Amino acid sequence: MATNGNEINGTGFGSRGKILIVGAGYGGLATAIELKRKGFHVEVVEAARQLTTQGDIIQVGSNASRVMSNWGNLLEQAVAESAQPARMTLFDKSGKKLLEAPLPTEFSGYPVLYSNRGLLQRLIFEEAKTLGIEFRLGKRVKSYFEEDDCAGVEIDGERLVADAVIAADGIHSAARKHVIGIQQHPRSSGFAVYRTCFPLECLAKDPLTKPFTELKEDLFHVWLGSDVHAILFITVATQSAVIFCTHKDTYEVEESWTNPGDLHDMLNVVEGWDPIICAAMKAIPPEKLIDWKLLWRDPIRQWVSRTGRITLVGDAAHPHLPTSGQGAAQAIEDAATIGALLDKLGKDNIPDAFRAFEKLRYERTSLTQRMGWETRHRWHQTDWEAVAVNPEFLKMPQPMWLYTFDAEKYAYDRCDEAVESVRKGTPFISTNTPEGHVHEDWTVEMMMALEKEQAKDHFYRVANK
Ligand SMILES: Cc1cc2nc3c(=O)[nH]c(=O)nc-3n(C[C@H](O)[C@H](O)[C@H](O)COP(=O)(O)OP(=O)(O)OC[C@H]3O[C@@H](n4cnc5c(N)ncnc54)[C@H](O)[C@@H]3O)c2cc1C
């Protein structure tokens, strides 16, 4: 066991053990709460001095709200400040309505939420503090280390040691290099997104957009063009509007949540489009617009380090494109899975628990990652003949296997089989993917090669029925 004067002895923290978590995004906070609920001592290290209010809308599917329903009365508060649009309306770029697709607001009694990322992250952070989880904010983890019986991180010359480390450090994860042994940079997806969240009252000035300020129901409108889609989203509870415009990444935009966007450039992308979305864009306060590069990574099978005491979760393991609507939800499913496995296997079997976690999660998240690309492709390389026959072709998938899933139960139920597969090297058959689904590994390269092909139904692995 590595120790020095400042170190915390990992095995000295009660019978359940101590877990260090890196990153206080949705993945890190959710994992901290799930482990605290199961009796572990948890400490979270986060690079930001205070939790950011950056970001706009984040979808929390019922597969995630099911997990959050165990976190005091947080879910009620989240519902009160989130949107739950009853439908998504799709238009072509001229404004012709193509489809009004009902959006379920719940599955199995658990809500589907479209929340403000900063507001909801703040609620989860407060819940974590109430539970007694310790936070070290403003501390960037510089390196990771591990031995057979412990693992830890270095921050500002200090070494923190615990029974295990869970790295929830997002798409630019430094832990990923430690775990897989090579530096892999995230890849451009070929697209960037102008995105903004601003007070709804800004839309009151133009008669074309004024009716949006009088809405009593949340609104989700999507306009489709070739290689471009635009979204107008209105949350009545917070009286806010969100606009996205996904466009070809020709400007070498940096991936940053603060990279300013140019309103003039954004309007050029939709020149000649439906006057309503153009008017809504013209109302954006320029200082509230960012241009955000859409990055992604190949799915990787290895999330767990050499000794089995460090694992990746959330975007560090499996970053999702926004069109999946599942980035946060899959991070929260990870949390429930790890909580159940460590609860069942205990601190004496952490490497087995983490490797079982990989088995339980890889094929499902590889598919939800791919689903984000598929939806974008449906919208950008639209097969208009298929749409003429069946406009439902454009629907965003919200399949039952995804939205009704109980990650915690699945982990408890299949823990023994996953551990046996880890120990004996026998195959593990995932049952948290669509019935009949046969897993295929894929890479960003493969998807980019398909990018220009026109969207046909057989092209997709996730049906949008
Ligand atoms: C500022 C920001 C705004 C976002 N806004 C949106 C949005 O509007 N809509 C949307 O769908 N998705 C948004 N996302 C992405 C979304 O939050 C994630 O896809 C998803 O919730 C999975 O979360 P995560 O916890 O795995 O990763 P993240 O949310 O990226 O969290 C990672 C955390 O780790 C911290 N961290 C990174 N490196 C270190 C280190 N070395 N030491 C300590 N801490 C470290 C980061 O500061 C961050 O808080 C945003 C992400 C960020 C960082």
TrEMBL record:
Family: Belongs to the paxM FAD-dependent monooxygenase family.
Matches recorded under PANTHER family: MONOOXYGENASE, MONOOXYGENASE, PUTATIVE (AFU_ORTHOLOGUE AFUA_6G12060)-RELATED
Classification via Pfam families: FAD_binding_3
InterPro entries: FAD-bd (IPR002938), FAD-dep_Monooxygenase_BioMet (IPR050493), FAD/NAD-bd_sf (IPR036188)
GO molecular function: FAD binding; monooxygenase activity
Keywords: FAD, Flavoprotein, Monooxygenase, Oxidoreductase
Domain FAD-binding, chain residue ranges per copy: 18-342
Protein's name according to its UniProt entry: FAD-binding domain-containing protein
